[in-house]
Amino acid sequence: MVHTMSLLRALISTARMVRHTPQLAAGLPPDDAVLLDAPDGRLAPALLSAALGEYEAAAKLLATTREGGEWESRDRYVMKLAAFAHRRDSWLTCWLRAAPEDPDALVVKAELAVRRAWESPARAERLREAGPLIDAAADGDPRDPVPWRIALDHARGTHSSHSHFETLWSQAVRRSAHHYGCHVSALLYLSAQWYGSHRECLEFAEDAAHDALPASLIRTLPARAAFQQLLDFAPSPVQADRMDRAADLAIDLSGRYRAGDPWPAESRNLLAYVLVRRGRWADALEQFRMIGPYATSFPWSRFSDDPLRDFLETRDGVRLQVASGMPLCHRPGRRGPFAH
Questions:
Q1: Please, which contacts does 324-331 make with residues 24 or more away whose CB atoms are closer than 8 Å?
Q2: Average pLDDT in the 90-109 region?
Q3: Dmax (CA) of the chain
Q4: For 305, which DSSP code?
């Protein structure tokens, strides 16, 4: 009898999936339309020019962000340009040769050096060699917080003391009190995987989120702290409740941006993962809709060498989970959970 009931439940669940999964694809771009780490409209021309060995478009883009104090965009573009230079750096070499003191070229050079050092078997030695490059980038424009974000990443890799970290942190927030990239770097330093603890990491994230403006990506920091904890172990009931509050805060932030906006894409990808781990399938499906075609390597690259495939498989799995929980037959007069 028990076996029969289990089989019946499995058959009903499968029937629900078959019936509702196509319906739940509404608002989700097809697999072949999803892009991994797609550049926005400002960055794409700079990357295209860099692919041709030309640096002028990148130089203009970063100069514009520096002169306008667009520190969040600047940080994102510096990381993307350095990631491109990691594979193809002739354009950056030409730029540095033409303008060796250019603060925009110097910050990309410092980011690239730290990125290469992190991936080197001789990480500590390579990171020490990168120190003067970070100093040069910081001297390039004393207003710029981006070199200090790089310095915080550097400190994590060189096993810097808490006192040195706090010195760097004070320099970063002096330049931009609510700079998202600097906060992420600080959160990683304070995580249990590095030099802090889950408690310290989450408290830092919650305090920062509390002080942030409603549309600031810093409001997603508690969800990022929850992610760091989920890497280690399943949460206790008290920890799980705190994670859900962090996810709710990130859901609110996500709702302040239009669906398919590339700016909050990484935060939405992270949030979707946290919601999946919490078994909040309907909320996760809604975030996949909000993500649209903008999959990001983080967090999926933490679990797979093919982050796009992992993203798509997780998205499909969420649809199946939501479908399996929907009524098999629609009752007349009742609106379904996705009715408008």
A1: 324/13, 324/16, 324/17, 325/16, 325/281, 326/16, 326/19, 326/20, 327/16, 328/12, 328/15, 328/16, 328/19
A2: 98
A3: 80
A4: S
Candidates 243, 241, 320, 258; CA nearest to 292 is: 258
Each residue's pLDDT tens digit, 250-272: 999 999 999 999 999 999 999 99
35 φ, ψ (degrees, to nearest 5): -110, 145
Task: Decide if 65 contacts 74 (C-beta within 8 A).
Answer: yes
172-190 residue pLDDT tens: 999 999 999 999 999 999 9
CA distance 39 to 118: 23
Joined together, the tokens standing for residue 307 give: 């982050």
Question: Helix 146-157 and helix 123-140: axis angle, to 10°?
Answer: 160
CB-based burial label for 284 (10 Å; 0-12, 13-18, 19+): buried
The whole-angstrom separation of Cα 290 and Cα 268 is: 8
Where do the structural domains in the chain lie, given as residue ranges?
A: 219-326
- What mean pLDDT comes out for the span 148-161? 96
Please give the single-letter amino acid code of residue 270. Answer: L
pLDDT at 299 over 90: yes
DSSP string, 193-257: TTTS-HHHHHHHHHHHHHHS-TT-GGGGHHHHHHHHHHTT-PPPHHHHHHHHHHHHHHHHHHTTS
The torsion region of residue 248 among left (phi > 0), alpha (psi -120 to 50) and beta comes to alpha
- What's the CA gap between 299 and 79, in Å, rounded? 16
36 - beta bridge partners?
295
For residues 234-250, one letter each, b for 16 or more C-beta atoms within 10 angstroms of the residue's C-beta and e for the rest, the string is ebeeebeebbbebbebb
Sole residue written with tokens 């520096």: 66
Using the Cα atoms of residue 84, residue 89, residue 93 and residue 94 in order, give the sign of their dihedral: negative
Asked if 150 contacts 136 with a C-beta cutoff of 8 angstroms, the reply is no
Are the CB atoms for 108 and 91 separated by under 8 Å? Answer: no
Q: What three-state secondary structure class fits 156?
A: helix
